[in-house]
Specification:
The chain has helices at about 5-15, 35-45, 65, 85-95, 155-170, 175-195, and strands at about 25-30, 50-55, 100-105, 110-120, 125-130, 150-155, 200-205. It is an alpha/beta fold. It has one domain (about 5-205): P-loop containing nucleotide triphosphate hydrolases (Rossmann fold, 3-Layer(aba) Sandwich). Strands 2-5-1-6-7 form a five-stranded parallel beta sheet, with helices on one face. A two-stranded antiparallel ribbon has the order 3-4.
Length: about 210
């Protein structure tokens, strides 16, 4: 199935679901490089007016906090996010009329506060991130918040190819790009896959798509 097929199926599932709160929260989870952002953007585009995208990456801890904790080389692992802030923001998004959120600027590797608004007329929020359906504590506290949850299932060799290409796109030479992918991204990907909790939809990758 293609990404657009997955987007179509997810939109149909959302249309058939009654939200638990003020807004419907749809989670798109998966390992780094699985295509979460692209799929989430396609879903929001199909849903049209009244839908918004909420990336988890806005809740990255800053390098100034990660470095003294020895976590900078592991940036992107579960423990390098502000989980409590993220959970609180999700509960607000589900219940409150207007919520202002941070976003992550990947070119500068920093989160920018107050850079996104979930408006009062937003009815559906599509959330994307690695650990949305993660079974490890405290991330398992997110499971009851989702009205719909989907997980992108992509083989590790394809993830590796995409992740190396991503680092090449940021200007790194091939050796450095491969080292970055294998040293941090792939271990995080394996952890995401191994600790996947229950989800409503598993979306397989098709090499022929």
């Amino acid at each position: 199935m293609t990404l657009q097929d997955h987007a179509k199926d997810l939109v149909e599932r959302i249309a058939q679901t009654r939200p638990k709160g003020r807004r419907l929260l749809a989670a798109i989870a998966g390992p780094p490089g699985s295509g979460k952002s692209t799929l989430a953007e396609a879903v929001v585009a199909r849903l049209g007016e009244g839908a918004a995208l909420m990336p988890m990456d806005g809740f990255h801890l800053d390098d100034r906090l990660l470095e003294p904790r020895g976590l900078l080389p592991r940036k992107g692992a579960p423990e390098t996010f502000d989980f409590d802030g993220f959970e609180h923001a999700l509960r607000r998004v589900a219940a409150e009329p207007l919520v202002v959120l941070p976003i992550f600027d990947r070119t500068r590797e920093i989160a920018i506060a107050g850079a996104q608004e979930i408006a009062e007329d937003t009815k559906i929020v599509v959330v994307e991130g690695n650990y949305l359906c993660f079974s490890e504590s405290p991330w398992d506290r997110l499971h009851p918040l989702w009205d719909v949850s989907a997980f992108l299932d992509v083989p590790e060799d394809e993830l590796e190819r995409r992740l190396v290409d991503r680092w090449l796109g940021f200007g790194f030479d091939p050796d450095t790009a491969r080292k970055k992918a294998l040293a941090n991204d792939i271990p995080n990907a394996r952890r995401v896959v191994a600790e996947r909790g229950a989800v409503d939809m598993i979306l397989p990758w098709n090499s022929a798509a």
